């Protein structure tokens, strides 16, 4: 089971700045810690202590089977976590965000993804593809250390699918849109299709 938490960023920060300060980042980490501590308590696990793996991805050093990842955009926050699935990744973007969509897609999307987005004519589809790429790279721990256009999301339906690449293996993804925010969770395909619930 994967748990997904979503909140407006204003629930964490008193005001949302254009750029996050060190204090803002500390407040977001504190919020994450509060949520994960409550989850651990409910599952008879200790209060989590954090470290980083060899690639720099945050992890829980005293509850090794607790996998988590968080993301924020200018308006929203998301946290995905699980005691059953290692290496979860999550990304969130608000679909009202204004970007240079076409040039970014030309640079970072696989040709199949570019065609899918152009065929849909939907900005939400642009954000779906973008958040898939980020969630998968966060799940595998590479972050932005890989050429995004090499990743090609293969959709099973409108909100689920698989991304495979020789360098990272295969990752399943699931996208959900809530209150204008596009959220994508990703995890290794070896776990099969996972149930998830709001937390």
Description:
The structure is a single chain. The protein contains four helices and eleven strands. The radius of gyration is 16 Å and the shape is globular. With 199 residues, the chain is an alpha+beta fold. The protein has helices at residues 22-42, 101-108, 111-120, 123-140; strands at residues 2-8, 50-52, 58-60, 67-72, 76-82, 89-94, 153-155, 160-165, 169-178, 181-188, 196-198.
Helix-strand layout with pairing:
Layout: E1 2-8, H1 22-42, E2 50-52, E3 58-60, E4 67-72, E5 76-82, E6 89-94, H2 101-108, H3 111-120, H4 123-140, E7 153-155, E8 160-165, E9 169-178, E10 181-188, E11 196-198
Parallel strand pairs: 1-11
Antiparallel strand pairs: 1-5, 2-3, 4-5, 6-10, 7-8, 8-9, 9-10
Features:
single chain; 199 residues; alpha+beta; 5-stranded antiparallel beta sheet; 4-stranded mixed beta sheet; 4 helices; globular
Would you identify the regions where 5 or more consecutive residues have pLDDT less than 50?
none
Radius of gyration: 16 Å
Our count of helices gives 4
The share of residues in helices is: 25-40%
H/E topology pattern: EHEEEEEHHHEEEEE
Strand-residue proportion: 25-35%
Please tell me the overall pLDDT: 93
**How many extended strands?**
11
Morphology = globular
Q: How widely separated are the two ends?
A: 11 Å
| Oligomerization state | single chain
Strand order of the largest sheet: 6-10-9-8-7
Largest sheet: 5 strands, antiparallel
Alpha-beta content class: alpha+beta
């Amino acid at each position: 089971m994967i748990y997904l938490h979503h909140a407006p960023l204003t629930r964490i920060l008193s005001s949302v700045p254009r750029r996050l300060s060190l204090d803002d980042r500390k407040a977001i980490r504190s919020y994450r810690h509060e949520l994960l501590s409550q989850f651990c308590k409910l599952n008879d696990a200790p209060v989590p202590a954090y470290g980083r793996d060899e690639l720099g991805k945050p992890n829980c050093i005293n509850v090794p089977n607790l996998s988590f990842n968080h993301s924020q955009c200018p308006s929203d926050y998301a946290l995905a976590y699980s005691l059953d699935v290692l290496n979860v990744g999550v990304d969130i973007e608000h679909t009202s965000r204004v970007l240079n969509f076409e040039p970014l897609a030309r640079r970072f999307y696989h040709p199949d993804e570019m065609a899918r987005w152009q065929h849909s004519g939907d900005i939400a589809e642009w954000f779906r593809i973008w958040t898939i790429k980020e969630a998968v790279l966060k799940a595998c721990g590479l972050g932005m250390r890989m050429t995004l256009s090499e990743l090609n999301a293969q959709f099973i339906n409108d909100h689920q699918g698989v991304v495979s690449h020789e360098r990272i293996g295969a990752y399943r993804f699931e996208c959900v849109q809530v209150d204008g925010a596009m959220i994508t969770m990703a995890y290794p395909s070896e776990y099969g299709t996972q149930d998830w619930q709001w937390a």
